[in-house]
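Example record

The entry below shows one chain as it appears in the dataset: sequence first, then structure tokens.
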Amino acid sequence: MYGICLRYHQDIHMANEALQRGFIAVFENLRKYNASGNLGGWIRTIIVRKCIDLIKEQQSLKYEDIEQLENQTLELGDIDPSSMQLKYSEITELLEQLPLGYKTVFSMYAIDGLKHSEIAESLEISITTSRSQLFKARKMMLGLIKEKYKKSRMQNSQL
């Protein structure tokens, strides 16, 4: 659960605060858990929501709307996807380079598995904004991955 908090908050003190608030909420609402679902998933959802709440408290997220994203695609260029093996730590390192809005939506969608409607409701943004932020985050992540790939290729060719 702490890893989730660190994904949303670079500052360890903020991550600790989010984790603490999350577990307080878990214990306060434990009687509401109906045992029909996965307990870990239920706790994870609460932790993610507390991370988002803390982000909202600390600063307002700025999102840009883009109406037409369905026809846009991301190109890998000269990267062979089978040759890229990124570790979790490398992915989180790249995520930290994204602007807060991009990182938040990307984490919620790609890592936490939330739908755009859930993201929009949680962050109080439109579904279109959620989609545009995800598209921009993917595009930026792809650029960062390409840069990392090129650096590693150059280092390997120098050996």
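Notes for this example: Residues 61-76, 78-83 have pLDDT under 50 and may be disordered. Residues 1-59 form one domain.
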